[in-house]
Each structure stands twice: as C-alpha cells, then as structure tokens.
Write a structure and sequence with these properties.
Strands 13, 14, 15, 16, 17, 18 and 19 form a seven-stranded mixed beta sheet that branches. The radius of gyration is 49 Å and the shape is flat. By secondary structure, the chain is of the alpha/beta class.
C-alpha cells in the first residue's frame, strides 16, 4: 500500500513537471516570435533614423568644407604670408570671414531657429581671429581634432549631449594654421529627426556618444537578429518590461537608442489562459508539498532523535577537548607573560637610552640654532658693510672723477692742437670708461640687493637712441665703423618711462657691438610690437657684423661676469656685467631680452620694453619744411644701409631723394637731371668712397658750370679735424659727422637750401649755450667744499655766462641766501659744519610764501635712497657727480625761467 502511494506520488509529480515544461515551452516560442517582430520594427525604425542623422551631419560637413575653401579664408592666409599687418588688409579679410560665417548661421535654420549656434576661426596658438559670438568664452583646446571635418562632442554635464562641434583643421602651404569650428544645436537636429517620421509613439529616440554607457539601470542583453548584425545593432530588455535598441550613426560619434515601453508590446498569452495556468500550477504545487511533508514527517522525527543522541555525545567529546586545549593554552600564556615581562624591562632600558640621546640632540640643535643665528647676523653685517663700503667708495671715486672728466671736457673746448686734442679725448674717454665700470659695479650690487628701480618720466625715444649712438660714436670712428639708427615715423616717440636706463641698455649693447666688430655697420632698429590708448610696446634690435658668439656661449651670455672669451689672454676687455645689468633693466621695463648669433656672422641683440604714452606733448618749435617740399636731393654713399636710411628720412621730410653708390654714377645722374631741366638742389656726399672720394667729387661738381649750383653737404663717418679746410676749399657748404642727430641733419639741409634773408632768419642756428644763458643774467649759488669739483663747476658756469657765488659749506649757503636773491642753488650734499640736507631745510624754512628757489642736489653718492633723501629735504632735483656740461645745461633749462619784461617763462617750455 505504501509502495503504491509512493508510485502514485512519483507519477503525479512527473505529470506536474511535464505540464510545467510544456507550458513554459509554449510560452518561450510564442514570446520569441513576438520579440522577433518587435525587434525587426525597432531595427528598421532606428536604421532609418540613423541614415537621416548621418545625412544631416554629412550636410554640416559640406557646409564647413565650403567655409574652409571660402575666398575670405584663403585670401587671409595669402595676405598674412605676404607680410600684411592687421592694420593694412588683414582686418578687412577677417571682416569678410565673419560675414561669411554669419551668412551661413542665418541661412541654416530648422523651424525658424538657427541650426548653428556659433562659428569660429581659431589660430593654432589658440588666438581667436573670427567669431560670430565673441562674447562667449570657449576653452575647447582639448576637443580640437586633427582629422579633417571630424565631429567632437562638448560635455554638458549630463548623459545627453546638446552641443556638437564640427571642426576642420586649416592648412596653408603644408602648415597647420588653425581650426574652423562650428557649434550645432543638437536639440534641433533631434527634434527634426523624430518629427520626420511622423509617429513618435513607438518609442523615444535618445542620442548618446558611442563611448557613453547606454543606460544607467541594469539591462538584460539579448541576441540581435540576422547574421553579422551584432556589431552595429543591439537590443536590450529593460527591467520594466520594455525594450531598448541601439544603432551607431555613420561617420559620427553618436548612437541612436530607441526605448519602447511595456505598453507598446502585446502580451504572449491571453489573460484567461494565463490565469487558469497559474491556478492549476499553484494547486499542483500545494498538493505536492502536502504529500511530501506527510511522507517525510515520521522520518524526520526518527532522524531527529538519532541526531540528538549523536549530538550530545559529540558535545561531551568537544567539551573534553576544549578543557585539554584550555590547559595547554594557559601554560602557553604563562610563558608568554614571562617573556613579555623580560621584553618590557629591555624596552624600558632602551627608552631610557633614547631619551638621553634625544636630550643630547636637543642640546646640539640649540647650539646649531645659536650658530646659525650668529652666522645670519654676521652675513647681514657683512652685507651692510659691503653696501656702506660701496657707497663710500662710490663717493670717494666719483668726486675725483668729476674733476678728471669735467676738466678734460673743458680742456677739449679750449682750442687745442690736433695732438693735444687727441690726448685730451683719450683721457676723457678713459675716464668715462672707468666711470662706466664703477656704475656697472654699483648697479650690479643694487641688482643683488633687489634695490634697482625704474622711474616713470616723459622722454623722447628718438633722442635717447641718438644719445646712445653719440656716446659710442668716437669709438666707432676710430675703427671705421658706421653707426645707423632706424626708428619708423609711425612709432610715437613721446613716451613715459626711464629714459636714462633705456639709454644705458642701448649703450651697453651698441658698445659691445663696436668692441667686437672690426669692419662693417652697426644698426639700431626699432619696431612697433603693440599699442593701445595708454601704452606702447617697442622692440629694439642692435645688429652688427662682428665676430659673433659660439652656440655654447649663448645660454650664459647674460650671466654675471660671463664673457664669450673668459680667458686671461682675451683680446677684449670688460667686467662682463653690462649684459647682466641690461637683462635686469629690460625685465623691470616689462620686456624680454635675447640674442641670435653665429660664429663669424655677427650678432643681433634684441629686447622689448613697455612705455606709457604721453597724453599732452608739447612739440618743440621747429623750422617749417614747407618751402623745401619736393626738393630734389642726391645721396652719394657706397654704404648700402646708410643710403637706405638717408633715403627714408629725407622722403619722410617731403623731399625727392635718389641715391648713387659711387662718384661716377653721381656725376652721371647730376648731368642727366640738369639736361632734363630738373637739376638737383642738393647732394649729400660721403667722404671715404672707393675710386673717387667725396672731396674730389665735390671739386668736379663745382668745376662744371652745368651742375655747379648744386649745394653740397659732407656726411662722413670720419670726424672733422681742427684745421681741416679741404672740404671748404672744394665748395662743400657744411660738414656733418656720422652718426648725426636727425635735428642736426635737418637743420643743415635747411641752412644749405635757404634762398633769401627771410629764410635765413627762419633756419638760423640756435644761439650758443653761453649766449643763451648770459642774456638772461642768471645768478646762481654754488655750495661746494671740494676744490676740484668747485673749479669744474665754476668753469662750466662761466662758459655758460652765468654769475655764480661760492659757499664752502651749508652754513655759508644759508647766510648767502639770507642776504641775496638767487635764480638757482647747486647744493653739495656732504659738506663740513652743515651738510646740504640741513642747509636745504633751513633755506626752505626762511622762504616767504610764494617764493621758491630751485635747489639742485650735487653728490657723488648714488646709493639707493639718496635721491629720495634729497627730495625729502626739500631739494627739487638730483645731479650725480661726475656730470658733464650737457647734463648741467639740461638741468638749468629744466628749472631756470626766462626773464622777459617781468614775465617768467620756462626755457624748455
């Protein structure tokens, strides 16, 4: 009976399992068929939309390809390759380019909205030249592709992408010049794609990047349909019963994903059959459970009793084993405690030793700290002592140097013989070189102490460059070198900055060029880098044809005490500080300095400087050039750079200039012009030319009645020597030494071209310095205790025609001022009894309201803070010793006023 019941249970269970398997099989096959139909619909729908999207972006690439080939783009690159600037031509090209971009943006629309959000032309260095939305920032350097017409995706902070970037690299003559970028409003494209089908109820089309996860929720992947289709089409079952399909868009980084909700998919079985199946299945399962529980209940009770007995026995055995293990473990713990105690005693001893070592280390560190503090104090004391030593040495050396340079300058104007003039010039030049060494050492010490500062005062760039060339002109003449300067007229020379420091940099660079050049030319060239309403950036270049610099020396050329030839047997002298100081000065002027050179091929030192622009500039009174506009001038010089620069300057003045490189060609041009009825009014002749020199050429011109009326100007690198009358006897009207100031060259031209007395009055040379000041009757007080400096200053003032009183100390100066009226006081700062600072304060305290006499500080101390100390004491300006007559004249012109019928006017106004 029991066996029959067991067989019945087995048969019933087998039937139940068979029925469930059959039901599940039918469900699977029907679901498979329906799923196949749905997937085919999804695939067709997505592939159609993918093709539409691919065509959409293909048209966008065609738009960008048309822009790349647009005439405005190619014209811009061609003009810039020809050297055209933004001011002349390129700005118009960029305007045409922006108009082409804006036209494309306005033409391409979907539902009335612009398809392109932005079109931009960006250079390879990131500079944006053309942009339809310049107000919006665009930091997209990381998304720029190198493949032509590639599509990049701009991240928007979400899974969906709303902006797409179409980029095309722009090449010109094989070089990457930049990128053409177009932003596409992806939302419009998506809306257009869905609306094109006319039925969006089947599912929602999402757009994702290819490398972005498709869904954020877990999905069940199922196989796709067809052979070989799994690489381009995929289908997912969603947890909510829906279906998602994905297909890539050709030639784009996008995938189209169609998500279909459960409501869009019909159920496999009807509701009635599905409910009946569930009821039968539940009944059979409950019956099987009840029958199985009944059959195994008795067995379970018996087995439970047997297991309980076995468990109790095993428990007793386990308890015994645990007791035995506990005894063993306790013995082990006792041994470990003994070992730990012994180890603790050892550790305690070790800690005591460590504490003693640490105490010794603390004592040693305190000792080191005291030594370091003492070393720092010693270093600060040494630095202070060095600064005081340099200031003292500067004062002690510059005071006698004032006498050496001042007396030699006065000696040079006293009518010496040729040999005496040469000796005096050599002495003055050597003294100036020694002064330059002293100044370099002081400047370098200020650089090390980070105390070198830049002033901001108005000055003229043209004057500073010409001053620098005049300083080294004599050295260049001795070597037969020509110094040239080229400052374009478009550069505004009236700037604000530190003119003396700029001149110092130029003198260092030009002086080095003269030192290392044996023949050829040295050119100082300026060019405009950048300009706005308030500031201007100028690039200066000093080009020479000298010995050049080895490549391995270029990296160290601006280091302190570094020279291209550092051996003790070197041919060229110098401290090696000039370039170091120049680099620091250029940095303070907001620029950079560098050099390019090859051994034996000359060098080009270049630097930039930032200057302010003078808002109101008072132009000097100059002779009008209207009378000579169109005058024909012939330039005769065998040196090509000199000819070019003279042609440029003379044409800037409105004259007609032509050039000849030798005397023979010059004579031919003069005769041809005379025969054509358009003779040359003036000829500028170089003195030293191959074949026929300038003086011989002048004699031939004056000997020929056809061209004898041509006025002649000798413009030579050779300095005019005392007693040299050859050029006057040859009929040359004026002699000018290279490099000449532009004002001197212009005045000489005007003087030679004057035709009547009225014009002569217009171009009359400036009166001498002595007459200019003597006519005013200036009364000056000189407070000086050094006899040599006193003699130099008095001699210079006498040459200028000024009446001067001498005070040997500060107290005497105060006494003089209390009883006399002075137009200016030259006050030495360091004098016995009362120094110049205290004396100045005393004089200022005695002045009546409205009365103010200019007080100029005279001192050989050029250390940091002295000038500020002078101004704080009430002095008006600062003149460092040694100074020359030109510097004294500039100071007098700056502060003295013209006395004319009781009306005061500044001389330099």
């Amino acid at each position: 009976m029991k066996l029959a019941k067991n067989y019945l249970s087995i048969i019933t269970g087998s039937l139940l399992v068979g029925y469930v398997i059959l039901l599940l099989g039918l469900t699977h096959f029907e679901q498979k068929a329906r799923m196949t139909s749905v997937i085919e619909q999804i695939q067709l729908n997505l592939e159609k939309r993918s093709a539409a999207m691919s065509y959409f972006y293909s048209v966008r690439r065609d738009d960008i390809r048309a822009l790349v080939d647009h005439r405005a783009v190619t014209t811009f690159f061609a003009n810039r390759d020809l050297g055209m600037s933004m001011q002349y031509g390129l700005e118009a090209n960029l305007l045409n380019m922006r108009q082409a971009f804006e036209q494309l943006v306005s033409q391409r629309r979907i539902s009335g909205k612009p398809m392109y959000l932005r079109i931009q032309f960006r250079e390879a260095n990131g500079n944006i030249l053309a942009d339809t939305d310049a107000q919006q920032e665009s930091d997209i350097a990381a998304y720029l592709p190198m493949d032509p017409y590639a599509i990049s995706i701009l991240p928007q902070g979400s899974a969906l992408t709303t902006q797409v970037l179409v980029a095309a690299p722009l090449h010109y003559k094989g070089r990457l010049m930049g990128h053409l970028l177009a932003w596409i409003n992806h939302k419009l494209a998506q809306h257009h794609l869905i609306a094109a089908d006319g039925d969006s109820s089947k599912g929602r089309i999402l757009l994702h990047t290819i490398n972005t996860p498709v869904l954020t929720t877990k999905a069940l992947p199922i196989d796709s349909l067809g052979q070989g289709e799994s690489e381009r089409f995929g289908v997912w079952l969603l947890p909510n019963g829906g279906i998602a399909g994905r297909v890539p868009v050709a030639d784009t980084p996008f995938e189209l994903i169609g998500s279909f909700p459960p409501s869009g998919i019909s159920s496999i079985l009807s509701t009635r059959w599905f409910s009946a199946s569930l009821l039968i299945l539940a009944t059979l399962i409950l019956f099987g459970i009840w029958y199985t529980v009944r059959m195994h209940t008795n067995n379970l009770v018996l087995h439970a009793r047997i297991e309980e007995s076995t468990r109790q026995e095993n428990t007793l055995k386990e308890k015994n084993q645990e007791l035995e293990q506990e005894v063993v473990q306790r013995k082990k713990y006792e041994q470990e405690l003994l070992l730990a105690r012994e180890e603790s005693i050892c550790q305690e001893n070790i800690l005591k030793g460590k504490n003693q070592e640490l105490e010794l280390e603390v004592v040693q560190r305190k000792k080191y700290e005291r030594e370091l503090l003492q070393a720092r104090n010693d270093a600060e004391s040494a630095s202070q002592a060095k600064s005081e030593f340099l200031a003292t040495m500067s004062h002690e050396i510059r005071t006698p140097m004032n006498g050496v340079l001042g007396m030699t300058e006065l000696l040079l104007t006293s009518g010496l013989t040729g040999k005496q003039q040469q000796y005096a010039e050599t002495t003055h030049r050597s003294g100036q070189m020694l002064l330059d060494v002293i100044n370099n050492i002081l400047d370098f010490s200020q650089i090390e102490a980070n105390k070198l500062k830049i002033s901001q005062l108005p000055f003229d760039l043209q004057d500073v460059v010409e001053d620098a060339l005049q300083i080294v002109a004599e050295q260049a003449r001795e070597k037969g070198l020509e110094l040239l300067s080229d400052i374009p007229v478009e550069i505004n020379s009236n700037v604000i900055g530190d003119g003396p420091r700029l001149r110092q940099v130029l003198v260092n660079l030009v002086g080095n060029a003269v030192k290392f050049t044996e023949q050829g030319d040295i050119v100082v060239r300026a060019s405009l880098v950048e300009e706005n309403r308030k500031e201007i950036v100028v690039r200066f270049e000093v080009l020479d044809s000298g010995i050049g610099i080895d490549a391995d020396k270029l990296a160290d050329i601006f280091d302190a005490f570094a020279q291209a030839d550092g051996s003790t047997t070197r041919r060229y002298g110098g401290t090696g500080l000039g370039l170091t100081i120049s680099k620091r000065l250029v940095t303070l002027m907001g620029g950079e300095i560098g050099v390019t050179s090859k051994k034996g091929e000359g060098s080009i030192f270049h630097f930039t400087a930032l200057f302010g622009k003078q808002i109101q500039v008072r132009e000097p009174v100059a002779v009008s050039l209207d009378r000579i506009t169109g005058t024909k001038v012939l330039i005769v010089d065998d040196n090509l750079p000199t000819r070019r620069l003279l042609l440029k300057k003379i044409e800037d003045w409105g004259m007609q200039a032509t050039a000849a490189d030798c005397a023979g060609k010059a004579l031919k041009q003069l005769h041809e012009a005379a025969s054509n009825g358009t003779p040359y009014a003036l000829a500028i002749l170089d003195r030293m030319m191959p074949g026929m020199d300038g003086i011989t050429l002048a004699r031939k011109i004056k000997a020929n009645s056809t061209i004898a009326d041509t006025r002649l100007l000798m413009y030579s690198a050779r300095h005019e020597e005392l007693g040299d009358t050859d050029w006057r006897e040859a009929g040359i009207g004026a002699y000018l030494s290279k490099p000449a100031r532009l004002a001197d060259l212009r005045n000489h031209l005007l003087s030679l071209l004057r035709t009547n007395a009225s014009e002569e009055d217009d171009v009359q040379a400036t009166t001498s310095k002595a007459t200019e000041f003597a006519q005013q009757g200036y009364h000056i007080l000189l407070a000086e205790d050094n006899l040599v400096s006193l003699d130099v200053s008095m001699a210079m003032l006498e040459l200028l025609g000024c009446q001067a009183d001498v005070a040997e100390n500060g107290q005497a100066a105060v006494d003089y001022v209390s009883v006399n009226d002075y137009d200016m006081i030259l006050m030495d700062c360091h004098m016995p009894e009362m120094d110049g600072f205290i004396a100045t304060k005393a004089i200022r305290s005695q002045e009546m309201k409205g009365d103010h006499v200019p007080i100029i500080a005279l001192t050989a101390d050029v250390a940091k803070g002295v000038e500020e100390q002078c101004l704080a004491a009430g002095m008006d300006d600062y003149l460092s010793k040694p100074f020359n007559q030109d510097e004294l004249v500039r100071m007098l012109k700056k502060w003295l006023s013209v006395k004319d019928d009781g009306v005061q006017h500044f001389i330099n106004a």
